[in-house]
């Protein structure tokens, strides 16, 4: 999921060749699902990794056309694992059916969970898009190595977009599967309590410092200069933080006021995503002491940080 903004754009003209098996690099084939939209761009990219034996990363939405396209691309090769970057349904909903078809176990970072407990009366606006009941056959942990067919992957925990988000680096290569943590077309939605802005920013720093230079995102095309793109996204988030602090210091007292100031001209379909992103920034800035915010039944009540001295 993403929110349209002034974030750096990568390849807006990406041609997904939906439903077709596209060779990305040796040992990696992309099949893009037919679920394009304002939050998924051209659709979810599923990756078939391996040569004689394979694994599938992010089987995608529960769509029979996409299942057929994946099985056609897999052919007669054994599927040894179904791997998830995270458990939002545009990535995970097809996992059960693909498991029945192939017998492959499910490997991911544990059942879906919130990044923090909900406050009293708080709603999780992403609840309907989360795969709450999916349980892994194998729980993956940060830093371990897992085989995707005959290709070795290094697991990297990248919480932020959601708590169980993982990225996967191809061992001894430049390539990193980034899931929704870094996408090839826009900035990532971070919405509390499902996600956490603090975790997201820390994960971004972690990915930038990692030895991977080229990224394969779950939405959009390959990113040639991964760390450079990630730095631009990080700078964009820090700009948002500064914009919010400045707006609150100048009198903005609600998230609605921040939305009007910061997301001028945003498409109506993305208003909710923008509001959720602002609320994640507000929570992060409040925890840091940069602003003061009090949750109410009508949303956050904002005020400047108490003056020192």
Structure at a glance:
By secondary structure, the chain is an alpha/beta fold. The chain has seven helices and 16 strands.
What does this structure look like?
- The strands form four sheets. A seven-stranded mixed beta sheet has the order 2-3-4-5-6-7-8, covered by helices on one side. The chain has a five-stranded mixed beta sheet with strand order 9-10-11-12-14, with no helix packed on it.
- It is an alpha/beta fold.
- The chain has helices at 64-74, 89-92, 95-102, 197-209, 226-249, 255-262, 271-288, and strands spanning 2-3, 22-25, 28-32, 45-50, 54-57, 79-83, 106-108, 138-139, 145-148, 151-157, 166-170, 175-179, 187-188, 214-217, 291-296, 299-304.
- Strand 2 (22-25) and strand 3 (28-32) form a beta hairpin.
- The protein is elongated.
């Amino acid at each position: 999921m993403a929110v349209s903004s002034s974030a750096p754009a990568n390849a807006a003209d990406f041609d997904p060749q939906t439903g077709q098996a596209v060779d990305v690099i040796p040992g990696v084939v992309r099949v893009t699902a037919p679920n394009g939209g304002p939050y998924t761009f051209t659709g979810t990219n599923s990756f078939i990794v391996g040569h004689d034996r394979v694994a599938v990363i992010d089987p995608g939405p529960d769509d029979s056309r996409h299942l057929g396209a994946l099985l056609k691309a897999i052919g007669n090769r054994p599927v040894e694992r179904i791997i998830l970057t995270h458990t939002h349904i545009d990535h995970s909903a097809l996992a059960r059916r693909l498991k029945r078809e192939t017998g492959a176990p499910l490997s991911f970072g544990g059942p879906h969970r919130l990044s923090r407990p909900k406050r009293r009366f708080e709603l999780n606006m992403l609840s309907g898009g989360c795969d709450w009941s999916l349980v892994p056959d194998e729980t993956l942990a940060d830093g371990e190595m897992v085989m995707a067919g005959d290709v070795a992957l290094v697991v990297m925990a990248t919480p932020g977009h959601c708590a169980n988000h993982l990225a996967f680096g191809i061992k001894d290569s430049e390539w990193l599967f980034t899931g929704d943590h870094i996408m090839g077309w826009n900035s990532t939605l971070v919405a509390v309590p499902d996600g956490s802005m603090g975790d997201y920013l820390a994960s971004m720093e972690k990915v930038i410092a990692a030895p991977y230079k080229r990224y394969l995102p779950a939405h959009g095309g390959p990113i040639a200069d991964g760390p450079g793109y990630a730095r631009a996204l990080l700078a964009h988030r820090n700009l948002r933080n500064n914009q919010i602090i400045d707006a609150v210091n100048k009198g903005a007292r609600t998230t609605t006021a921040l939305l009007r100031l910061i997301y001028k001209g945003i498409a109506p379909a993305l208003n909710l995503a923008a509001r959720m992103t602002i609320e994640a920034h507000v929570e992060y800035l409040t925890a840091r002491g940069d602003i003061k915010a009090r949750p109410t039944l009508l949303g956050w009540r904002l005020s400047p940080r108490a003056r020192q001295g």
